[in-house]
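Hi everyone, sorry if this is the wrong subforum. Our group has a chain we'd like a structural model of before ordering constructs, and none of us has done structure prediction before. Sequence below.
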Amino acid sequence: MNYDFDVLVIGAGSGGVRSARMAAARGVRVAIVENRYLGGTCVNVGCVPKKLFVYASEYAGAFEEAKGFGVNGQLNDFDWPTLRDNKTNEIKRLNGIYNNLLENSGCTILHGSAALIDAHTVQVGEQQYRAERIIIATGGWPFKPDIEGSNLAITSNEAFYLDTFPKRVMVVGGGYIAVEFAGIFNGLGAETQLIYRGEQVLRGFDEGVRQFAAEQIAQKGIRIRTHTDIQAIEKTAQGHLLVTLNNGSQEEVDCVMYATGRRPMTDGLNLDKVGVELRKDGTIKTDGFFKTSVDSIYALGDVIGTPALTPVALAQGMKLVAQWYDNDSTELDYDNIATAVFCQPNIATVGLTEEAALAQYGDDVLVYESQFKAMRHTLSGLPERTLMKLIVQRSSDKVLGAHMVGADAGEIIQGIAIAMKAGATKAHFDSTIGIHPTAAEEFVTMRTPRS
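Answer:
Right subforum, don't worry. Here is the predicted structure as tokens:
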């Protein structure tokens, strides 16, 4: 059978680009289709611009810290257009790098929206292309609930391109995106509320981490309101937003940002037409080798419901190509995936939460925990504290989980994730000589389990 391409990838995000490049490196004919921007969510409206905004949001706190060290300065002004436009220029630069990476690897870039015609045919614009294998890597997209005035609210996508910086912001949601953006707005000077309909923010994280992080975040000036939701939004004559909450009260703000979840981006792909099976939540069903219910069609990344993390999509892209061309017969291992929340202070975690460990191992679990004021704040005078936790299986001494709330948590937990992947035990931690003085050394000096 004649094909235009050996592999056709739909979606030029992290997973799509990686799989396309790796396949092209094997000498096969590859095309990649994109209808928005090269690099996907992470590069354009996710990890990269968000981290740049996080950096910006930390300067005000740094000025506060500096006073206790005899460094007297003040933040005189914040120019939102400078931050916004410098960020946009950096994103454009990265878009160009992705374009060059794809072209230099031999991939054909097809700009436009893709629709599946059959198991081997994809339509892009007016043109149809046939491929032996098709990869769907279209990712996710934020959504807003269907309430009165929801069109007046923004999502994280629009937050990166606001015309003016708001003075009063209401962020809706309890996940890591909501928490991070609340920190960004607050750090840049906005009066910020974080409202969540549930009991506590950061559902799915270790319960101790959730509670401790919420306390630290609130100390930074963010007003966290749980058991709270929006019923309606309307615009006032002055151009502000009047928000009606579920308790009947009303508040006026300048910006409402929803971070209440993301949905699989499968619009217009015609998946039902070709028989690609979906789960109830709209994610694409795949086996351990990324194959969908149609033998020639594969899927990876956020669209298949695995952890919505850029490194996961990258690993899936490499694993899929290795399965095809390198005789790799193993499935991707999703255990001990480290992740971070770039709020203030940072949160990072790897492995099991205390609750998951107890559910799985019962009394065969020891918990080591430490809370302390980091050395920096002995002079800064700020109340920020750090939390560290290790979850250990009593019988095997194996470290099952590590959690941290504090400065540079992501940088610290990354190294611990390597140790845990290698099967580290608590004895390994105990026998490791710490780097002094650092916060990180606390992970190798905790000797007494929590009672």
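For your construct planning: The chain has a mean pLDDT of 97. The domain at 5-141+263-325 is CATH 3.50.50.60 (FAD/NAD(P)-binding domain).
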